[in-house]
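User: Can you recover a sequence for this backbone? Please restate the input before giving your answer.

Assistant: Of course. Working from this structure:
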């Protein structure tokens, strides 16, 4: 175990690529480089609000005990070996090419090599302006930092690929935000999350270089990414690039399926928020589903088109991979194989999807006839809109041979936001009769099926209204709920956090921050 300020950090990204070394923070275009060297801007009064003991044990980093170590978490100090930088990337936002974006408020401090081949990029989010801040301030508010800190760790414990969060500090400074985009800007407490992942490389890092026709840089970045994060890939240059893209396609498909499994809606699936490692990245106006509504988007900016709604995410994953494919195309002699690789997405997505649904439903295998059942299951849920998490929990205890529609209705009553009408109740009864018959055909034992379901269906999810309440408390200087949630996220498949086993309360359904959010963070 080492202190964060005394680790010998590697700076392979900085060493491997051309960068803008000026240290200038003026917003600007930076052609020809993959990053800008920039130091965090100090804050006035950093205090440590949260620290992830589990992650720090994995990384071999000691909990900061001195002001010197806390200073690193706040951007007020650097370890001698750190060479901080902001990465330059581009992206498609809401389907439109947005040009250069880059880390506008995230600064990578260095890479911590835990062991050979196991390296973690440490990044401060909210550490002050960079050349990519455009007109914004480079800061993050407590509200959004608490959300990222808790949610990324919650996703980790749900076994969904994600970036992680090591620490959360209050900066002691105020940050001005127009939360509702209605001209009523207000000051909010500022905060900084230290987040970490093997890499924060995005589809947008590759798109930027292709758009700028910097093909040497593009080639170098793909070679570096493959060698460092996909060392198992074999073959000549072109085959290897295709194999890499195929793996990104596969990882993205798996990620979309994992989001479906737990009911996660990212909210801003722009290509600059898509990780080439297939991680959930950049937590903003995300939400878990409360009521099962495939058209739900938590992002108020996304309301007009619902592009990033829950039920759209897998299609957007494919669309985004298409952008990555276009960026890689100049590196290949022809695009035929690239397109064919992109087209493996569908098969990969559905393979993982049906396996996942089979597990959620406790089926020993997914037969062709089960696929029609799964469709019917999802359609019924989308019609009745029960609480997704509670519904699946109750499914585990559905008694054999459901007697009639009323008995089924009673069984699931805890999950309904609105009691189904006669038609809905009949549809549910039919569905459950069919389900009961199918599960009796399982080769595995009921106990084994139950175990499968318990491992696939979370019982605790970090609902937006809980986050909202925890944030309100923190803003008042209390941290009781925050601490409870920090524990609850660790065992989401158990009854440990049953104090929170309840639907979203009625008051939270329309309240800002409890259901929907703006991007303003
Ligand atoms: P997002 O959609 O939140 O991932 O951000 C899109 C782009 O806006 C990225 O380039 C971010 O770095 C940048 N950005 C978001 N918020 C800020 C901020 N407060 N200051 C500077 N840049 C920001
Ligand atoms: Mg982003």
């Amino acid at each position: 175990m080492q202190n964060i300020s005394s680790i010998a950090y590697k700076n392979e990204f900085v060493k491997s690529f051309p960068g803008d070394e000026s240290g200038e923070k003026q917003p600007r275009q930076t052609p020809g480089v993959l990053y800008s060297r920039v130091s965090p801007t100090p804050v006035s009064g950093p205090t440590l609000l949260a620290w992830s003991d589990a992650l720090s044990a994995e990384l071999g980093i000691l909990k900061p005990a001195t002001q010197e170590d806390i200073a690193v978490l706040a951007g007020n100090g650097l370890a001698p070996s750190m060479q901080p930088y902001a990465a330059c990337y581009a992206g498609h936002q809401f389907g439109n090419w947005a040009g250069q974006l880059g880390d506008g408020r995230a600064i990578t401090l260095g890479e911590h090599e835990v062991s050979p081949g196991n390296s973690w990029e440490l990044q401060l989010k909210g550490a002050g302006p960079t050349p990519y801040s455009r007109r914004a301030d480079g800061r993050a508010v407590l509200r959004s930092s608490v959300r990222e800190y808790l949610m990324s760790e919650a996703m980790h414990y749900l076994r969904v690929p994600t970036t992680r969060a090591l620490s959360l500090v209050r900066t002691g400074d105020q940050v001005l935000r127009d939360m509702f985009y209605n001209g009523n800007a207000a000051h909010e407490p500022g905060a900084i999350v230290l987040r970490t992942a093997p890499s924060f490389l995005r589809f947008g890092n590759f798109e930027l270089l292709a758009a700028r026709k910097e093909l040497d840089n593009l080639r170098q970045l793909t070679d570096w990414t493959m060698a460092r994060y996909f060392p198992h890939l074999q073959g000549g240059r072109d085959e290897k690039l295709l194999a890499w893209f195929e793996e990104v396609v596969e990882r993205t498909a798996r990620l979309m399926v994992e989001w479906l499994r737990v009911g996660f809606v990212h909210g801003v699936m722009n290509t600059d928020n898509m990780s080439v490692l297939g991680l959930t990245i950049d937590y903003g106006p995300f939400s878990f589903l409360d009521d099962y509504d495939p058209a739900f988007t938590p992002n108020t900016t996304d309301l007009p088109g619902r592009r990033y709604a829950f039920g759209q995410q897998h299609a957007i994953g494919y669309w985004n991979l298409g952008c990555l494919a276009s960026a890689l195309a100049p590196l290949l002699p022809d695009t035929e194989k690239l397109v064919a690789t992109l087209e493996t997405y569908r098969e990969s997505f559905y393979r993982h999807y049906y396996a996942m649904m089979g597990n959620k439903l406790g089926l020993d295998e997914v037969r062709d006839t089960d696929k029609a059942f799964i469709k019917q299951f999802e359609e019924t849920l989308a019609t009745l809109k029960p609480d997704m998490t509670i519904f699946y929990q109750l499914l585990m205890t559905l008694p054999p041979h459901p007697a009639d529609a009323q008995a089924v209705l009673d069984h699931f009553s805890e999950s309904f936001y609105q009691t189904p009408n006669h038609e809905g109740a009949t549809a549910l009864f039919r569905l459950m009769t069919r389900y009961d018959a199918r599960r009796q055909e399982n080769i595995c034992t009921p106990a084994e099926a139950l175990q499968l379901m318990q491992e696939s269906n979370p019982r605790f999810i970090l609902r937006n209204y809980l986050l909202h309440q925890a944030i309100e408390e923190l803003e008042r200087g209390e941290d009781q709920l925050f601490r409870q949630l920090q524990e609850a996220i660790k065992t989401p498949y158990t009854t440990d956090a049953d104090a929170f086993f309840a639907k979203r309360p009625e008051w939270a359904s329309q309240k800002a921050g409890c259901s929907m959010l703006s991007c303003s963070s």
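That completes the design. The mean pLDDT is 97.
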